[in-house]
Amino acid sequence: MRWGLIPSWVKDPRKITLMINARSESVETRPAFKNALRRRRCLIPADGYYEWQASAGRKRPFFIYRRDRRPLALAGLAESWIGPNGEELDTVAIVTAPASRDLAVLHDRVPVAIRDEDFSRWLDCSTDDAAPVMGLLAPPEVGEFTWHEVTTRVNHIDNDDPQLILPITDEQRLAENAPKPAKRPTPRKVRPPAIDDGQGSLF
Tens digit of pLDDT for each residue in 82-94? Predict the structure, then answer.
């Protein structure tokens, strides 16, 4: 599925804002999400997620995960958009909730993680009713999650390796905090004067 939900009633996906998160407080009534909440709930497996915290004028990335290191199952909503020529696009968004007291030091919101014993309940869309699952859209308990700072290499999409979730080392932190050398100005190329060949060219 493509990251960023596109409601089925959208006429042109290129003209809609990318909706990657659905707020738990309004997901039941917001037109973009309410049908997916009733009929197309899904789970998104993850080892953890990243959040950035502003510190000393720059944002530092942190990896957030369960304290017991078990995988997460994030509450997702899915939609299938069908275009005028029959093209189909499957998209997904994650439900978020206000952060618990401890996680709020990093960000005021967190993705909702569904507990193992509630998987079937969350995935059961047979009743076409969201009321039975609204109580699941809550942040984790205080102390359930932990986190550590990671390298800013995570900021670049080309980087995709296991090192991105490891705690940052002292050497990496020093290198990343070091002032960057000033860019040398690019020499300006001087074009030779044009030679008038008498043709009177307009170009």
Answer: 988 888 999 999 9
Report which residue type is found at 129.
D
CA proximity to 96, closest of 150, 157, 146, 30 = 30
Dihedral angle of Cα 102, 107, 112, 115, to the nearest 10 degrees: -30
pTM score, whole prediction: 0.82
The alpha carbon of residue 66 and the mean position of all alpha carbons in its chain are separated, in whole angstroms, by 18
Give dist(CA 113, CA 96) in Å, integer.
9
CATH number of the structural domain spanning residue 50: 3.90.1680.10
Q: Which residue has the tokens 């993680």?
A: 113
Report residue 47 as tokens.
């080892």
Asked if the structure places residue 115 within a domain, the reply is yes
Which uninterrupted H or E stretch holds 66?
strand 58-66
Residue 128 structure tokens: 């076409």
> Quick one: tokens of 181?
């050398």
**Residue 24, both tokens:** 């738990």
Calculate the CA 87 to chain-centre distance: 25
| Residue 128, domain extent | 2-172
Rg (CA), the chain: 24
Distance CA 20, CA 79 (A): 12
